[in-house]
Design a protein that fits this description.
27% helix; 2 domains; Alpha/beta knot; alpha/beta
Length: 320
C-alpha cells in the first residue's frame, strides 16, 4: 500500500527494519494500517546524559557530597518542591546566595520544609551536576520511585488513554523530553526496559521540566510481555516507523493507545515490533530524513490528544 504522497520517511528512532506484520483491528483502524516495521534515528546523537550516582558519595570541594539522585535547574527544582519529592539536602551557588530573587524564594521554601541548604562554590555545584546547567541550585532527592506496570494500567481507567513505551532509548535527555510531552497530553505513564536503557536521572529530570514529578514511570524486564499485558487491558499498540506505509494522519489513533518509540540508532527491536498492531509514519517533505525520537513522540502524543479531544482541539494552550 502506498505511503503518504510526496513524503520520504518519518521520525527516526521509532521503529525497526524488516518488521514482521501481524493481524489486529485491520483497516478499520485507519487507511493503510501497515504493521511492524523498523524506525531508525540516524540523526546526530547527543552524548548520553550521566546516570544518577548511587552507592558511594559523589562530591566536590567544601565537603559537598550526595548519594541519592539529583535535580538541578530552577524550574526542575520548583516542580520537585511542588510535587513534594523527598529532598535530602540542597546546594546553592554561594556567589548568588541572597542576590537573586528566584533563588531566594526557592531557598525560603526549602528552609520552611526543614531542608538543610548549603552554599557552595560554583565549581562544587558543577561537580554535583556533572557539569549540567544547574542555574545556581541543586537538590539531592531520594532515588526515583518507579511504578509497577499495573499501576499505569490502573491509572488509565476504562476510557481513552495513552501509554508511551520506549524500546531502549539511550539518552536521558530524550527520556525527559518525551516525559514532558507525555505529561502535557495527559498520558497514564511511560514504560522502560530495566536494562540497556536510559533511566530517570539528572539529565531526564532536567529535560522533563518537572514532568517526571507527576508522571508514573514503570521499568520492566521484558517489553514484549509488558505489551501483552497492555493489550489485555485494551490497548492498541502503535509503532512509529519511517518504513510504515500508513501515515499517522490517515490512521485512527483514538482510544487506548500504547505508543512505541524506538532506540535512537537501532529503532524498535524485532521482538517488540512483532507485537505491534499498527505502524505509522510521519510525513517528511524537507531535505533531511527524520525527526529525532523525542520530537516524533511529541507529534504523535498530540495526534492522540487531537483524537481524544476531537477536532475542537485543546481547551487551553501555553508556551514555555
Amino acid at each position: 500500500m502506498p505511503g503518504p504522497k510526496n513524503t520520504r520517511g518519518a521520525a527516526r528512532g521509532t521503529g525497526a527494519k524488516g518488521g514482521a506484520h501481524r493481524g489486529g483491528k485491520g483497516a478499520s483502524r485507519g487507511a493503510g494500517a501497515a504493521r511492524g516495521a523498523r524506525h531508525e534515528d540516524r540523526s546526530r546523537r547527543r552524548p548520553e546524559a550521566p546516570r544518577p550516582h548511587r552507592g558511594k558519595p559523589r562530591g566536590a570541594s567544601q565537603g559537598a557530597q550526595v548519594t541519592g539522585d539529583v535535580v538541578y535547574g530552577r524550574r526542575s527544582v520548583a516542580e520537585a518542591l511542588e510535587a513534594s519529592l523527598p529532598v535530602r539536602q540542597a546546594f546553592v551557588a554561594e556567589a548568588q546566595h541572597g542576590r537573586d530573587a528566584t533563588l531566594a524564594r526557592l531557598i525560603g521554601e526549602l528552609e520552611e520544609r526543614g531542608v538543610e541548604v548549603h552554599a557552595v562554590s560554583k565549581s562544587a555545584l558543577d561537580g554535583l551536576a556533572y557539569g549540567g546547567n544547574h542555574q545556581g541550585i541543586l537538590l539531592e532527592i531520594e532515588p526515583f520511585a518507579y511504578s509497577e506496570l499495573g499501576d499505569l494500567v490502573a491509572a488509565s481507567g476504562e476510557g481513552d488513554a495513552l501509554v508511551v513505551l520506549l524500546d531502549h532509548v539511550q539518552d536521558e535527555g530524550n527520556l525527559g523530553a518525551i516525559a514532558r510531552s507525555a505529561e502535557c497530553v495527559g498520558a497514564s505513564g511511560i514504560v522502560l526496559a530495566n536494562r540497556r536503557a536510559a533511566g530517570v536521572g539528572p539529565g531526564a529530570y532536567k529535560s522533563s521540566a518537572g514532568a517526571l514529578a507527576h508522571l508514573p514511570v514503570a521499568q520492566v524486564p521484558n517489553l514484549a510481555s509488558a505489551i501483552d499485558e497492555l493489550k489485555r487491558a485494551g490497548f492498541w499498540v502503535v509503532c512509529a516507523t519511517e518504513h510504515a506505509e500508513a501515515s499517522a494522519w490517515e490512521s485512527d489513533l483514538s482510544g487506548r493507545i500504547c505508543l512505541v518509540m524506538g532506540n535512537e540508532d537501532k529503532g524498535v527491536s524485532r521482538l517488540v515490533q512483532e507485537h505491534a498492531d499498527l505502524s505509522v509514519a510521519l510525513p517528511i517533505v524537507g531535505r533531511i530524513e527524520s525527526l529525532n525520537v523525542a520530537q516524533a513522540a511529541t507529534v504523535l502524543c498530540y495526534e492522540w490528544l487531537r483524537h481524544a479531544l476531537g477536532e475542537a482541539g485543546a481547551p487551553s494552550a501555553s508556551e514555555d
